[in-house]
Design goal:
This protein is an alpha+beta fold and 394 residues long. Helices cover 26% and strands 26% of the residues. The termini are far apart.
Length: 394
């Protein structure tokens, strides 16, 4: 076991204390303090080496599989660490590129405090893209949380701290750690060491980001320096999660609603999450493309998709592809460019790309559009509604 103080003592003047690196200088801030961050198992220092700003990661206790995880970035017995004024030992370090940025947690907290929904939407889309890639490959981070993701100046997200990572070559082994409890499934054990251990934290972070992007006031009531909004250990009765689900249902945010529901799953592996995250990315790309082409001439109307059901949920497809995956609890065919769909207890009308165009909270039933109007029943009273949401007595 080694201490932060021992690393500070060595790195305050590391000349002659490295085996292969040569000259290393720890960067300092304006007050002359060394630049570093500290985690549970390691300290990371911002260093200047061969004219470049890099990171040096030193460990407080032995770690498994550093060579497999970090490859040539691991330098074994590289740094002479003082254990007393006259004695010391050579310890392993990991050298990497220094990423200038702030943690995703800090970025979320600042944007939510400022109620900057545009920034929160940007972060939610960026995280979904990162998470979609992470939950579909054959490896896992192992301790996925906002503090282990840096947001650089260009808005790119960079996962860091891979000490608990799973790689295919570790198949059959026990997990060296269980990750941070505030982001992990409460049922995760050391036996859960596979490519799917990032599922639960990915779903939790995605859900919190999307909830804050439409309801940043949730941060004032539920935001926490040790979590985002939800406590996995109390998820069954978590008020913040229920409020998030209610907001997604109310706004017709079907993908986000289904991802949030997965947080109640009994196991850390979340069935259907990769497909849902991929759909979230596809939906964001469609939205961005539509925004770019807003000023362009209208394209020829595409083939209208037809209703289909799969595993008890409804979606829409053409003869060539699934256009809207099965996300809804009920639905009607498209008429006059809109289809009525049920999400939870709330009816919505969506367009042929899956965008919610009209919501009907409190309606017991709705009918498809005919001649510019659709019939609805709210509180036992029959009325008609037009595509702009205006209601009319019958």
């Amino acid at each position: 076991m080694f201490s932060l103080r021992q690393y500070l003592t060595t790195l305050s003047d590391p000349c002659g204390l490295t085996r292969t690196l040569g000259d290393v200088e720890v960067c300092r801030d304006e007050a002359g303090r060394m630049c570093f961050s500290v985690g549970n198992s390691a300290a990371v220092f911002r260093i200047r080496h061969e004219g470049r700003i890099r990171s040096l990661r030193g460990y407080f206790r032995p770690q498994r599989h550093l060579r497999e995880i970090y490859g040539e970035r691991l330098l074994e017995k590289e740094l002479f660490l003082y254990t007393s004024p006259e004695e010391g030992v050579w310890v392993d370090v990991v050298i990497g590129e220094w990423i200038e940025g702030e943690s995703l947690h800090d970025a979320i907290a600042r944007a939510a405090t400022d109620r900057d929904t545009q920034r929160l939407t940007f972060l939610s889309r960026a995280f979904d893209r990162l998470a979609a890639a992470m939950v579909t490959d054959d490896r896992a981070h192992g301790d996925l949380k906002p503090e282990n993701i840096l947001v650089d100046r260009a808005g790119v997200l960079h996962p860091i701290d891979f000490d608990a990572a799973y790689l295919p070559c570790f198949a059959g082994e026990r997990s060296p750690e269980l990750g941070t409890a505030a982001y992990q499934h409460p049922g995760r054990t050391a036996e859960d060491f596979n490519a799917r251990i990032d599922d639960y934290p990915a779903a939790l972070i995605s859900t919190a980001l999307h909830a804050l992007s439409v309801a940043p006031e949730l941060w004032e009531r539920y935001g926490d320096p040790d979590t985002l909004l939800y406590d996995p250990r109390k998820i069954a009765a978590d008020r913040a999660l229920q409020e998030s689900l209610d907001r997604f249902e109310e706004l017709g945010m079907a993908v986000e609603y289904r991802i949030a529901q997965l947080l109640y799953a009994p196991r850390p592996e979340l069935f259907g999450l990769p497909a849902l995250l991929s759909e979230a990315v596809r939906k964001a790309d469609r939205t961005a493309k539509k925004e770019r082409e807003a000023a362009a001439p209208a394209a020829k109307a595409a083939e209208m998709p037809e209703l289909f059901v799969e595993q008890g949920r409804w979606g829409y497809r053409t003869a060539r592809e699934v256009v809207i995956p099965p996300l809804y609890d009920n639905g009607f065919d498209f008429t006059e460019g809109l289809a009525a769909v049920l999400l939870g207890r709330t009816w919505h009308f969506i367009d042929s790309e899956g965008n919610t165009r009209l919501s009907c909270p409190g309606c017991e039933s709705v009918k498809p559009f005919r001649n510019g109007r659709a019939r609805i029943i709210r509180g036992g009273i029959r009325r008609e509604i037009d595509p702009e949401g205006r209601e009319f007595d019958i």
